[in-house]
Structures are given as C-alpha cells and as structure tokens.
Specification:
- The protein has 9 helices and no strands.
- By secondary structure, it is mainly α.
- It has one domain.
- The longest helix has 20 residues.
Length: about 170
C-alpha cells in the first residue's frame, strides 16, 4: 500500500515503518512525558489523526489514513514495550524519532516540510489534550521539554508553489 503512494515509493520498508511509527512515538513522548499517557490524550490524538485523513495536501492525508488505522492499538502495544520510567522512555523515544531526520531527508522537500510541520503540530495538540480550562494553558513542564520535537531538524518548504498548490490551482 505504501509503495503505491507517490512521494514514498523510493523508500525502503524500514524507512516506511519509521514514518508510520512516528505519530505513535510522538503521542507517547509528549503525552506520557509527565509520567502517564492518559485517556484524554490518547483519544484526542486519535481524533486529530482521523481529522488529518481529510486534510490537504493529498499526500499527507493519505499518509495519515494509514497511520490512523488501529492507532490506539499501536500506542498501547508500543507503550507496553517501553520502559516504565518516563525519563528513560523519553530518551529512548527521542533516539528513535531522531532516525526520522534521515528518512525525511530522502523525501521531496515540500513533503518532508509538511510532515515535519504535522509532527510538531501533533506534539503540541497532544500536550494540550488533557488538563486546563478548555485545553488552555494545559501543557506541563515535562511536556514542554518535548513539544517542539528537539530531536528533529526543522524542515522548511522552499518559497514558491508546492506541488499541492499547483494541483489545487489546476482544479479551480
């Protein structure tokens, strides 16, 4: 299925696995940074991922369609295989997410930038998912340390039309 997606065809199976696993790891890293990944954080993140399956650009929505399938089960299974100590778990996840830099570097710059931006957004939304009044001011100090995903090298799309913008203009 993944090899059929434009933009990912040239990646090896292990690299695709890294991309699929990234939102699971981000959810556990940020949501569990304070020691517990609570139900609100898990449910909110799953809803967010499902919403992203309807968003543009199309490559990102297709990516999140695959990621969202069985997402909570993936989180549970991954969490069960992780150390119980939050600090130890976060360091392990940080190392695993650091591998994303190598995979993202192999993608088209626009696609890599869109994925990077979506990962940071996911981290921020996960951090806000529980606590606070209407999810305002609810990012804990432990979550704040990880919310900008410091292990990832920021990727900015080049100035100008992206392939998705050109596609939208052609549809109009």
């Amino acid at each position: 299925m993944w090899t059929m997606l434009e933009g990912f065809k040239h990646l090896a199976g292990e690299e695709i696995d890294v991309l699929i696993q990234a939102p699971v790891l981000i959810t556990i890293l940020v949501g569990g940074a304070d020691g517990e990944l609570d139900r609100d954080e898990r449910v909110w993140t799953e809803r967010l991922l499902r919403a992203r399956t309807y968003s543009k650009p199309n490559l990102i929505s297709e990516y999140y369609r695959v990621v969202a399938e069985g997402f909570l089960e993936k989180v549970e299974k991954t969490m069960a295989a992780m150390p119980g100590d939050a600090e130890e778990r976060n360091m392990l996840i940080s190392e695993k997410l650091g591998v994303l830099n190598l995979v993202l570097a192999k993608l088209d710059t626009h696609l890599a930038a869109s994925l990077y931006k979506s990962y940071v957004s996911l981290a921020q939304e996960t951090a806000k998912a529980s606590g606070g009044f209407l999810r305002i001011g609810s990012v804990s100090a432990a979550e704040h340390q990880w919310v900008k995903l410091p292990m990832l090298t920021p990727i900015l799309a080049p100035v100008g039309d992206s392939p998705e913008e050109e596609e939208e203009e052609n549809e109009a």
